[in-house]
User: Fold these one by one.
Assistant:
Number 1:
Amino acid sequence: MFKLILLIFLSSCAFFVEKIDRPLVQKKEFKKETMTEAFCPMDQKLNFQLVGTKDNSQQVYQSLIRSLNQKLDFLDHFALWSLMQLRIRPDQSSATSRLQVLIHQNEKSYYFDFFSESSDDQFPYLYGIEWILKKFNKKTSLETYAEMLKSPAIKDLKIGKDFENFLVKNLSEIKNDPELAPYYFRGAEVLKENETSPLLDFRNVIRLYRKNQKEQKIIVNTTLNEFFTDTGSSGKCNYDFNLYDHSIFLIDKVIPVANIFGLSSSKSVFFASSSQKLDQIESLKGLSLFKGASKVRSSAVCMIENQAKRIWTFSNQSRDPGQHLFHLVRYGLPSSKTTQEVSRLIKHSRHLFLSDPVRLVIESSRSSEDQIENLLKLNLPIYHAESLGNIWAYTHFNEGDRFIIDERNPGSFSCK
């Protein structure tokens, strides 16, 4: 019986893959396109961009730069903005988190993924930052950046909505933890959005890393899988799209979350995602950071590059984040010629094949009439979802480069 159900599921999925194998970039096909700004204005000449989950953190970072009163290069910004995430999202950007980084430096693009299969005192997030600095021959130490982050300019960092949701969800565990409770409770209430985040002495974090540096067993992955489309486009992703082509979907039992952030300066850019598994809620050695394990499902990543453009994407907050990027490619992402086209694809209706039971979930309020009609032909239960997944992008065309956030979830960008 199971084999019969599986056969029906796979054949139905294959049918729908054929149905969506066409570009959907024409504006008239989008039933509900909002006016939410998703990227910096195209008529603005930019030298510096930040992207992250909250505008306050970007304002604070600009204040930090001014307070340092020294010339910083791109790699300085990479290290400082990455380290500051420890205060912005200490649940997903902790010393123990997995770190995935896309970086364009010296006219070349790279992908790095840092994680550990060991669970004892492994700090891939810090290891990854230091490893990248060394790769690009940057001599400045993590200790020096920790000293910079002593600046009073960052004392006003505020709690964001994503982190508030995490605190509320785990309220009882945090309240009963004698090390975490003093950081995250004010009286009987957990910290809320726009309240000041707990202070963190970055020097103590680096000391902890140095103390355990010889025991680090960090895996550095740089491999991506190449894909090709029927129209002759190609790209590279960390998920194997050949599986999706054969209707083999990588469905998780839980929805993994991540913290996505990035920075663009002059001709260099980095785009990153950090995440960790929290089997239990506990402090990392008495710090305000949450201790987790980096052996966690990664964010889905794609790089589409040629002489005319660069399109990078991160996908998370889904039981199968790679499936969403696969659908974007089918909808025509590699053929996009402008930032606006990429943004419209990100705003467009998403769907997700799930199992146990076999069903299709779709954002029907964003769907076109044609798409709904095709779905109704499937021999599958179809369910509505108000929102599916989270996809952020970075684009570089002749018109300039831009980060693109997903209006479905909290996100912010700054333009300078």
Number 2:
Amino acid sequence: MVFISVVRDFAMYDRLVRNNPSNAGAELVAFDNNAENKTIPVRYNSFLNSYDYSKEAWFVFCHEDFQFLEPVAPKLESLDKGAIYGVFGAKLRVPGVGLQIDSNKDGSDMSFRGAPVSKPTTVDTIDCACLIVHSSLVAKHGLRFDENLTYDLYTEDFGIAAKEQYGIDTKVLPIRSHHYSYGNVVPRFHDQLRYLNEKFATASRVYVTTTCYAIGKATELPSVAALINSKRRIPHKWLFYKKISHKGRLTVKVLGVPVWRRRAYSMEAWHNGKDI
């Protein structure tokens, strides 16, 4: 494994990535963006352009504020090397695939996001906090990040381009993780979203992001938001409804009346690598 990160806060990087026992055995590549501030796609591509592909490895591109909560190497041993992987993703009508803890930078206000998966699960796109791809797949197709993007949507683009050009699937792994950021949707994000919708205007279909935006075939875009939210309007949900909150609480309603509430997931257990 080779972990590749663009770093500005080395104290956080050391705690969550460099000294994380879950990453044991990995080679670490840290780009110091304090010395020279370059965009993440440029940094990632500089690694891909300089790597010796005679040495096969899993590339783990991750943020400085991203933490694996269980050993990574065993999760990668039997994986199909012909796919792209992440820990949290989205597909149409399922905006959260993979269970992950999010929090502020200091670890406060922790909450669950998404739902757990029991096996690698195909999605439209994955979150930028972590992307995993095998060196052999990169070498075979010359995969690269789009340097027209800066700090948003670059993993979404990486996966969509791979799917459209080479039929490569993107999947979410069943692995515990904690992202010490809730992220921000700023004007720059929307500029880059417009760029990707122009880039993939003739794509074979629409791709959904973890922020519930759509990228892809322009003629289909107006209907995507409605499709994502359509499950909320299906009548049987009024008859029987089950939801797990961001705090890990399960609520069951029958005929619109709550009949059962209990803790479904424990963040403490999840963080300590215990079954939940």
Number 3:
Amino acid sequence: MKYSLKCPLCNQSLTIDAETENDAVEKFLSEGKVHTKKHHPNIPAMPEEQMKTMIRFGMKKQES
């Protein structure tokens, strides 16, 4: 299943393949850390649980 998420800071879209919603959250968490470091280096790190909550709220399951 494909999931998408937009960065709340720059609106860049990220899309990943994941088998479950929990798997999608973990993958977006990893991708989000890389994206933030590259595109938003001056933004302070967010606690992981807060980041996971934000990902769950913002991610969308793509239609098959």
